[in-house]
Amino acid sequence: MTVKRRLTLAVFLSVAIGAGLFPLLRSQARPATSATNVKVKPGDVTWHSDFAVACEASKQSGKPVLFFQLLGELDDEFC
Amino acid sequence: MLFSNPTVASYINGNFEPAWQSVRPVPIVNIDFGGDASVTRTLHGNIATYICNAEGHVLDILPGAYEAHTYLSQLKQLDSLYREIEAVDNPLEQLSKYHAGQLAVPREAVPLRTSLTQQQIERAQQAVNRLADSSKVVIIEKPVELVLRGEPDSGDIEKSHNSPDLNSRLQASLARDTRYNELHRRRQIHQQLATANWLTPQLLTKWLYREVLNTDLDDPYLGTREVLFSDYPFADDGR
C-alpha cells in the first residue's frame, strides 16, 4: 500500500468515526476502569499521625515506638 | 488484618506508641470482564515493624508478615529489650550485644509457637529451604512476580489434602512466612544492627526492602520488569 493510499484511508476512518458512521466501534470503546480503593479503619490500634509524633509520645510515656511500614496505605481497603 | 486482632491491638495500644508509614503505593490488579463484572486484587505489599526508642533509634525489626501469636510474642520480647536498654549506661553497646547474641543462636533452636502440626511445619520448612536456595526473588506474601507468572504459591502446603479449606491454607502460608522471617530475614537484621551505630527507620528503609524483603523501592516495577516484558511483543511500545 502506498503512502498516499494509507493517508487517504486514515483520513477517511477518522472522519467516519468522528461522524458516527461506525457506531458499533464507538460503543465498544469503553473507558478504562480504575481500582476503587475505599478508606477503611486501620485495625483497632490507636495510631499516631506519624513517626515523629510517636517519638514525642514515647518521651512522655516511656513506652517504645512501634513503627509499621508497608506498601500502600494501611487505611485503604487494598493494601 | 493483624491489627484487627483484639489481643494484638490491645497489647500494642497498652505498651507501645504506634505509627505507620507507606513506603510507596501497592501494586493493584484490576481485571475488567466487561459489563459490571470486575475483580480487584492487591498483590500483597511487603511489611516491616520497627521497634524504636524515643529518639527514633531502631532497636530491632520484625520483617514481613507474622502469625498473630508469634507477632505478639516477639513484641513482648522487644518490649523487654527496650526496658533493658533504657536501664543501662551504654545502650548502644547493650544493643550490639543483644544482636550478636541472637546471631549466635543456632537457627534450629529458634523457638516458634504455632498451631500447625509437626508434619505441616516440616513441609513449610522444606518450602523455606527451597526458597532460600533460589537466586530469584523470594516467595513471601505471594509477591508480584509469582502472581504475574501464575505460579502456585510455594507448592506443597497449598496442595496438601490435609488443609483443604482456604483458611487452613492461609494459616499454613502465614506460618511458612513467619518461620522464614525468623530463620532467615531476621538474621540479616541482627547482622546489620549488631555492627552499626544508631540507625533510624529512614536510614534503613531502602536497605531493608531491597536486601531483606527483596523489593527494590527504586524500581518502579519492583523487580518484576523481566517477567512483565520478557515475552510481550509490544514491550517497547508500552514503556
What does this structure look like?
The complex is a heterodimer of chains A (79) and B (239). With 79 residues, chain A is mainly α. Helices cover 42% and strands 9% of the residues of chain A. Chain A has three helices and one strand; from the N terminus they run αααβ. Chain A has helices at 3-18, 23-28, 51-61; one strand spanning 65-71. Mean pLDDT of chain A is 69; it is low at 9-34. Chain B is an alpha+beta fold. Chain B contains ten helices and five strands, in the order αβββββααααααααα. Chain B has a two-stranded antiparallel sheet. In chain B, helix 3 packs across helix 7 (166-195) and helix 4 (118-133) crosses helix 7. The radius of gyration of chain B is 19 Å and the shape is globular. Chain B starts with 5 loop residues before the first helix and ends with a helix. Mean pLDDT of chain B is 78; it is low at 131-163. At the A-B interface, helix 3 and strand 1 of A face helix 1, strand 1, strand 2, strand 3 and strand 4 of B.
List keywords for this structure.
heterodimer; A: 79 residues; mainly alpha; 3 helices; 9% strand; B: 239 residues; alpha+beta; globular
